Amino acid sequence: MLAVGVLAGLSVLSLLTYGYLSWDSLGLGPGETEAMRTGLGEELGAGAPSSQPHIVFILADDQGFRDVGYHGSEIRTPTLDKLAAEGVKLENYYVQPMCTPSRSQFITGKYQIHTGLQHSIIRPTQPNCLPLDNVTLPQKLKEVGYSTHMVGKWHLGFYRRECMPTQRGFDTFFGSLLGSGDYYTHFKCDSPGICGYDLYENDNAAWDHDNGIYSTQMYTQKVQQILASHNPRKPIFLYIAYQAVHSPLQAPGKYFEHYRSINNINRRRYAAMLACLDEAINNVTLALKKYGYYENSIIIYSSDNGGQPMAGGSNWPLRGSKGTYWEGGIRAVGFVHSPLLKNKGSVCKELVHITDWFPTLITLAEGQIDEDIQLDGYDIWETISEGRRSPRVDILHNIDPIYTKAKNGSWAAGYGIWNTAIQSAIRVNHWKLLTGNPGYSDWVPPQAFSNAGPNRWHNERVSWSAGKTVWLFNITADPYERVDLSTRYPDVVKQLLRRLSQFNKTAVPVRYPPKDPRSNPKLNGGVWGPWFKEDEKKKKSDKSKGANKQKKNKNKKKAN
């Protein structure tokens, strides 16, 4: 009976998969009939086209630096290769080493130290979210007439309703609130017994969409539906934050066909997931062309951080992995594809950071950036489109004051300028400085994935001298961080430490609250979702105020 059930499940999934793949061959969008197409075409013909470009920002999750065809990967990514080759490849492009930090910096244009999210990620049970006083990119785009839609992974907090995507500038939202979950069932367990459903449409659990469809395909279907129903003469902002290729490592069976020769099971599953993602992006591009958006569109592709080798990702030849400030954790796959680019088919080696998209896209959308918003990003469109020099000369990778302190770090090691026990990293021109505990620092070559299980014998490791808490690299000359220059150039170290100290003076307090037991999905109908009730807080504060008044009255009577 179990075997029959499994076969039946596979049959349903294969039907759904082939249904997903058949729309373009039929010439119709999801749920669209020819009559609907005719009516829609007549409706879309009305009105003059907008001079504002359609903006499509695609964010992959945990894609390693090597894991794209044009970086030499054994994993085939024909769509990404073609879009990048016809656009501008960003080969000096940086993000943050984890999910929440990259997403918060993209949507606000600010470093983590200026939003309070400088430590780790937002956990499902934490009463925490992107601070509500931060203006977001979709809010600014809405001001100038854009329709704003988000599909995919949010991971910027949801403990109260005001933190939800639809309250932060998106007209519609379809996706997950947490950092990860099952690709088919959309369930996530944060710890034993703390489990819940995590698929949303706008502000409500999307039980009606729970059809066992693989999330990469399901999100693509949603994007196609949005494009089919919107008027291409009016500007649209689509933020597509795919769950792939983040763990758990799951993919439909057909995508394993080309990768059965990969013995390492994690790498094989990862390859299948990336192949599915590549096909999904092809389908998004076809939809942009079919529904009349493409010629006036800007497609930006980015990973949110480096790959995780233990989960199949490869950053070779860069050092380190996701969660670290080595290049393997923060240098990302990225490109821009657009008919509006002036220098198509080029490579941009200028310094670009994920915070730069905020001012760049607002300017392209003919919007205004308020003078009182202290941004850390720069408008880099001319750098990308015309090959001009980047206005950016430095990047604060981060300062995390509550990360595990380096045991041997001290103010003395930092020349009295900086406490090197603190985890931090900064880039200024060609130089990069790291202090504190830098995290996993191996180089993981492709041979490391040659066996069925993880094999660290192939990894290249460096044993640092005892007590080391400062590293300096010339990233332009040594992008693989093999030659530490901190003892050779102490004056450069001091200059970068002073820059770190200057940035630190502008930092806001870290927001990393303890878990709240009220977050348990069992208390919320089995769903991960907002649990903090403003009314309850007001009632409690009103009660406390009333109690205080009564105490004051009693004290007055006693005094009389």
From TrEMBL:
Residues 532-545 have a biased composition (Basic and acidic residues). Keywords: Calcium, Glycoprotein, Hydrolase, Metal-binding. Residues 508-560 are annotated as: Disordered. Its cofactor is Ca(2+). Residues 53-365 form the Sulfatase N-terminal domain. It holds the Pfam family Sulfatase. Residues 546-560 have a biased composition (Basic residues). GO terms for molecular function: metal ion binding; sulfuric ester hydrolase activity. Belongs to the sulfatase family. This is ARSJ Arylsulfatase. It comes from Balaeniceps rex. The gene is Arsj.
